Amino acid sequence: MPGGGVALEELAAGLDRLDQEPVGEPRLRAAGVLALIDPSDPGLPLLLLERDRGLRDHPGQVGLPGGSHDAADGPLWRTALREAEEELGVPSSAVQPLGYGLPVEVRHSGFLISPLVGVLRHHFTPRLQETEVESCFWMPLRSAAVQVVNRDVSTHLGRLIAPGYLYQGHFVWGATGLVVDDLRRRLGQPIAGRPPTV
């Protein structure tokens, strides 16, 4: 793992195995997202997307490619790969799955989001699902360019001050921010710091 070296190997060693499906409260529906890291860059950039501003749910928010588990997918990590290919054109051949990161409970929408952490095997040209995705970008997990900040945001509960990460004008918070927290913590980086539910 060229750019990530020992840090990425340590991160991988602490992940839950792929044959250990994440378990949450029975009332929560399973969802899988892909946390894809580029190991060729020492900053260990993470692939993120910006949702289309016309969407009913989470318009304009930064997220990870992913969605609801479908029984036809088989294991949950395959859901993450399928959705990443649908939303961003990430070929499954470009992803080396490492394991599951910390699951995030999103109680207001009834999901348990399980991040499949993987590394990029080879570069690809993104193909955006235009009805859902505005853009995509890579945010380094190890870089002083990523600021830990608090911002005023609008949510289903009204307006509130949310902790998160600011990078090149993009604000990463909520469930995606919690996944980033987990990855940065494993890499010894400062985190925004919240409980693992939103």
Shape designation: globular
The tally of domains stands at: 1
CATH topology: Nucleoside Triphosphate Pyrophosphohydrolase
Number of β-strand runs: 11
Question: What pattern of helices and strands is seen along the backbone?
Answer: HEEEEHEEEEEEEH
Q: What fraction strand?
A: 35-45%
pLDDT averaged over residues = 89
Computed structural class: alpha+beta
As a whole number of angstroms, the C-alpha radius of gyration is 16 Å
Molecular structure report:
The chain has 198 residues and is of the alpha+beta class. It has a single domain, classed as Nucleoside Triphosphate Pyrophosphohydrolase, CATH 3.90.79.10. The protein is built from 3 helices and 11 strands; from the N terminus they run αββββαβββββββα. It has helices at residues 5-13, 76-88, 174-186; strands spanning 29-37, 45-51, 62-63, 66-68, 95-100, 104-106, 111-120, 133-140, 147-155, 158-167, 170-173. The strands form 3 sheets. Strands 1, 4, 5, 6 and 7 form a 5-stranded mixed β-sheet that branches. Strands 3-2-8 form a 3-stranded antiparallel β-sheet, with no helix packed on it. The chain has a 3-stranded antiparallel β-sheet with strand order 9-10-11. β10 and β11 (170-173) form a beta hairpin.
Considering the chains and any ligands shown, give keywords for the structure:
198 residues, 18% helix, globular, five-stranded mixed beta sheet, 3 helices, three-stranded antiparallel beta sheet, alpha+beta, Nucleoside Triphosphate Pyrophosphohydrolase
